[in-house]
Amino acid sequence: xxxxxxxxxxxxxxCAEILGERWTPLIARExxxxxxxxxxxxxxxxxxxxxxxxERLARLEERGLVARRDAPPPAPATLYELTETGxxxxxxLLEMMRFGVRVMLPPQPGDHLEPEWMRLALEAFxxxxxxxxxxxxxxxxxxxxxxxxxxxVAGGRRGTAVTTGAGPADVALRTDAMTLLGLVxxxxxxxxxxxxxxxxxDGDADALSDFALLFDLSxxxxxxxxxxxxxxxx
Length: 234
Hints:
The chain is an alpha+beta fold. The protein contains 9 helices and 8 strands. Strand 5 and strand 6 form a beta hairpin. Helix 6 packs across helix 7 (117-124).
């Protein structure tokens, strides 16, 4: 029996056979961002070898989670994309992000951060209850692609919706990925960041005070500590 197979008739075991393999969850995360060429995946996953990436993609194809198709002209290439079954991993991977944020800090030297991951991060931490009815266009520069990643964030009584692209908004903001994380968590003051030149805005600057309210990053906040009684009575 292959060492990646659990001898259990259990859906948890079958899922673990897929997501328990090294690099596989990260490959799925990249494909959640959209179809990718093999070279794109290699660049976005520093540390994985070409042979291992080939093996993981082949296994995901065998399991029906990934499919290949030809890229449209003019540049001939093969694109890898999630199938309907593969795309069903979305809530699982978003929940992994929600758990992972508990143990991800501080950043380590050499850590890679892909600007396009910000859309998934905003989706993972979007509030599910009522939020201010504000709309934001978020632009994150992607130097490797030479373009900005565009994300539309909309609050309302049903919670926060995060989608790809732009649209009508109270304000458009442009900043780098790490600064965006600080703004989302509420640990950075938008006015101070803007004064420091790390935040460009176009629109209603006052709307920025509501930006962090559209997200829930309570896992990042310090846990309350139990105060010690100065004069215990027993």
